[in-house]
């Protein structure tokens, strides 16, 4: 029987984030008998990441010079680095000032008090180090954590959330107005788009088990784009979603656009499209995406 010292070692480096990804990992107990957790400041007392770590999970975005220092030091001490969660992939909420979808609508919103000073911006970690695997989600599910740690190369991930959701799409049920995210009575077996909810599961990569949509909450796209939409311009992603809602609803296009371009939704829709706006950033290929 293997002792804890014989198990492969992994560590968790938290940059500027909310600890939601760490909590999701702790909700899984499968790793306990398969890996030795040697560094995670939230729960493990340790002064530094050991030199012999096989896998380093990095959560949070790069917001401070200390984040850059710790990230580069962590990269040098591990064989494999996995970017975990929305903040590690896009910078998270703190990067709204540079969000190409939300910026204009946020600036002209009459109800906001002021635009917070976001300089210096928060950045995704692959601006500074090479990433071996991307694990998108806000947070990723415990099952996805285990897949990333144990056997990501052979993972069978659903192409889109709709494949895991199981709700039926109807041709003769066409809403004319948007149903608010916390209003209305959700029919249990009917597609949320048919019921007037702005659900983007048709373009969002699967793997989450449709944890939001199955009980009746619209997908906001936290798992990032499905493979056909990786490294595409913002217009390409938004136009695809517009076509979905035009095909399935009679909701006015301007109402759809107002929600798609809102800060709360574009946080996730823009976590990959923003990267297409800067030529010197690395492509996030499907081979590196879990």
Described by strand count, sense and barrel closure, the largest sheet is: 5 strands, parallel
Beta-strand fraction estimate? 5-15%
CATH superfamily caption of the largest domain? NADH:ubiquinone oxidoreductase-like, 20kDa subunit
Q: What number is the mean pLDDT?
A: 85
Question: How would you write the strand order of the largest sheet?
Answer: 2-1-3-4-5
CATH topology assignment of the largest domain: Rossmann fold
Order of helices and strands: EHEEHEHHEHHHHH
Low-confidence stretches: none
CATH class of the largest domain, named: Alpha Beta
| Overall morphology | globular
| Structural class label | alpha/beta
Cα Rg: 20 Å
Can you describe what's shown?
This protein has 290 residues and is an alpha/beta fold. 27% of the residues lie in helices and 9% in strands. It folds into two domains: 4-155, Rossmann fold (3-Layer(aba) Sandwich); 161-277, no CATH class. The chain has helices at 20-26, 65-76, 85-90, 103-108, 142-150, 161-165, 234-248, 253-260, 263-273; strands spanning 9-14, 36-39, 53-59, 78-84, 133-135. It has a five-stranded parallel β-sheet with strand order 2-1-3-4-5, with helices on both faces. Strand 3, helix 2 and strand 4 form a beta-alpha-beta unit. The longest helix is centred in the C-terminal third of the chain and has 15 residues, at 234-248. It is globular. The chain starts with 8 loop residues before the first strand and ends in a 17-residue tail after the last helix. The mean pLDDT is 85.
């Amino acid at each position: 029987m293997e002792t804890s010292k014989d198990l492969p070692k992994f560590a968790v480096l938290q940059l500027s984030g909310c600890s939601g990804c760490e909590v999701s990992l702790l909700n899984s107990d499968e790793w306990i008998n398969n890996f030795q957790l040697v560094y995670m400041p939230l729960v493990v007392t340790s002064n530094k990441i050991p030199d012999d770590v096989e896998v380093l999970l990095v959560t949070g975005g790069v917001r401070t010079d200390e984040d850059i220092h710790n990230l580069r030091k962590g990269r040098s001490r591990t064989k494999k680095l996995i970017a975990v969660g929305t903040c590690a992939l896009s910078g998270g909420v703190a990067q709204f000032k540079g969000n190409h979808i939300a910026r204009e609508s946020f600036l002209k919103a009459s109800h906001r008090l002021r635009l917070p000073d976001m300089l210096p911006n928060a950045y995704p970690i692959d601006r500074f180090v090479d990433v071996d695997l991307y694990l998108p989600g806000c947070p990723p599910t415990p099952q996805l954590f285990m897949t990333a740690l144990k056997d990501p190369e052979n993972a069978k991930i659903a192409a889109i959330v709709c494949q895991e959701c199981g709700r039926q799409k109807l041709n003769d049920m066409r809403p004319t107005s948007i149903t608010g995210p916390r209003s209305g009575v959700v029919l249990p077996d009917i597609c949320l788009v048919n019921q007037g909810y702005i659900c983007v599961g048709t373009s969002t990569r699967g793997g989450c088990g449709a944890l939001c949509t199955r009980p009746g909450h619209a997908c906001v796209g936290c798992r990032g784009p499905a493979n056909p939409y990786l490294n595409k311009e913002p217009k390409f992603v938004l136009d695809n979603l517009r076509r979905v809602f035009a095909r399935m609803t009679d909701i006015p296009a301007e109402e759809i656009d107002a929600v798609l371009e809102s800060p709360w939704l574009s946080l996730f829709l823009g976590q990959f499209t923003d990267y297409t706006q800067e030529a010197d950033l690395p492509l996030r290929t499907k081979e590196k995406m879990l």
